[in-house]
Design brief:
Largest sheet of chain A: 7 strands, parallel
Number of helices of chain B: 6
Strand order of the largest sheet of chain B: 1-2-3-4-5-6
Structural class of chain A: mainly beta
Number of helices of chain A: 1
Distance between the termini of chain A: 34 Å
Order of helices and strands of chain B: EEEHEHHEEEEEEEEHEEHH
Shape of chain A: elongated
Number of strands of chain A: 10
Structural class of chain B: alpha/beta
Helix content of chain A: under 10%
Number of domains of chain B: 1
Oligomer: heterodimer
Strand content of chain B: 25-35%
Number of strands of chain B: 14
Strand content of chain A: 15-25%
CATH architecture of chain B: 4-Layer Sandwich
Strand order of the largest sheet of chain A: 2-4-6-7-8-9-10
Order of helices and strands of chain A: HEEEEEEEEEE
Largest sheet of chain B: 6 strands, mixed
Radius of gyration of chain B: 17 Å
CATH class of chain B: Alpha Beta
Chain lengths: 193, 204
């Protein structure tokens, strides 16, 4: 599991980067550190316990990445490609995802709660046991995905497609839904009340 | 420290494996069902299950104990030792356990069962059936529910909201997420606030 070592700068509530004393924002040469982190994450190796919170990432190819127990809380992802990635037990809580692609990825046991997700594609994705509580999703496509035991409690969904999904034990209680389609999905096995 | 999540189709419960980075003595939390996948995960990480923590007595969290004891002979910790067929060490509220170098704090939060414990390891809370993502634990009556909510309010919600939550069922979460989006918890706390205005002695 990622370590939650507080940033050494007094008053900062962020966590320190792995093997460093400060968070990215307080690191010397933070741009250089960020670029080296992105380069290291982009390779095809398995990455574990990476802490990279409160970062803005734009136009980056993270396809085929392997991430396990990492913390990306409060990041902004713009036009980031996570397709065919393997993401296990990672935290993406309170993030902003805009025009990101997760197609064909395996993102099980992760946490995306509290995030704003706009124009993102999650088709043919394994999202089992994933926490989407309180998300604000707009113009997103989860079609052909396995959402077994995933939790969308208290979320706000507008123009979201769940076509031909496995929704067994998925939790949609207290959701606010506008133009949401569950066509060909087993929504009877999900919880709505 | 590594934390592994294992999902059991037997009653849809979660088992957690916590161990050091380079293998050795590990902790298994709530062995609801021991299957080959879990054994392979233990062995491939060169772990030996030296300790078992039980969050409460229900079979969906303890049914694999018999199998596990035959393979690894761990020391088992739980709130009600007399409830089990295998020898169990009693855990007391606020006990600090040193389990092969991993520090565990036991926090008793009764209500779901009288012996319900939450285990705090590093920045993680293993909440069993006390608190899930989007729900609070089921109870058998209103007094038990009040006891559970009081425990959650006083013992868990007072912790740093960045604590991660690893529940006995459902998805992993964080304390901040539950504070913001767990409708059952939000409703209960709102009722609690109202109750304090009119009957200060009920739940404070």
């Amino acid at each position: 599991m990622f370590k939650c070592v507080p940033c050494a700068v007094e008053g900062c509530r962020r966590y320190a980067l792995e093997d460093m004393y400060t968070c990215l924002q307080h690191a010397e040469n933070s741009d250089q550190v960020l670029q080296s982190l992105i380069a290291s994450l982009s390779d095809s190796h398995r990455h574990r316990d990476v802490v990279m919170t409160d970062v803005r990432l734009k136009d980056i190819d993270f396809s085929n990445v392997h991430l396990t127990t990492c913390d990306f809380a409060r990041c902004v992802f713009e036009n980031v490609d996570f397709s065919q990635s393997k993401i296990q037990a990672c935290f993406f809580d309170f993030c902003l995802f805009e025009n990101c692609n997760f197609d064909g990825s395996d993102a099980r046991h992760s946490v995306v709660a509290g995030s704003k997700i706009m124009g993102c594609s999650f088709t043919d994705t394994l999202l089992i046991h994933t926490n989407f509580m309180g998300i604000d999703a707009r113009d997103c496509d989860f079609s052909s995905s396995d959402l077994y035991y995933s939790n969308f409690c208290s979320s706000h969904l507008v123009n979201v497609q769940f076509v031909d999904c496995n929704l067994k034990n998925a939790d949609f209680r207290y959701t606010d839904r506008q133009n949401v389609s569950f066509k060909y999905s087993n929504f009877e096995e999900a919880s709505f009340s | 420290m590594k934390v592994f999540f294992h999902f059991s189709l037997n009653e849809f419960s979660n088992t957690y494996l916590v161990g050091p980075e380079d293998g050795g003595d590990a902790i298994l939390i709530d062995p609801g069902h021991i299957d080959l996948e879990l054994i392979e995960r233990i062995e491939s990480n060169r772990f030996t299950i030296a300790h078992v923590l039980l969050t409460h007595r229900h079979p969906s969290h303890t049914a694999g104990l018999g199998t596990l004891v035959k393979i690894y002979d761990p020391i088992v910790y739980a709130g009600s030792p007399s409830m089990y067929e295998t020898p169990v060490k009693e855990v007391r509220d606020r006990a600090i356990l040193d389990l092969s170098g991993i520090t565990v704090e036991a926090i008793q939060v009764p209500g779901h069962t009288i012996d319900s414990f939450v285990y705090k390891i590093g920045n993680a809370l293993f909440t069993g059936d006390v608190l899930y993502a989007g729900r609070v634990g089921a109870t058998t009556g209103v007094l038990e529910k009040a006891l559970l909510l009081k425990g959650i309010k006083n013992r868990l919600l007072t912790l740093d909201e960045r604590f991660l939550i690893f529940p006995g069922h459902g998805t992993i979460s964080a304390l901040k997420i539950e504070k913001m989006f767990n409708r059952e918890l939000i409703d209960a706390m709102a009722i609690d606030d109202l109750a304090q205005l009119s009957h200060p002695s009920i739940m404070t």
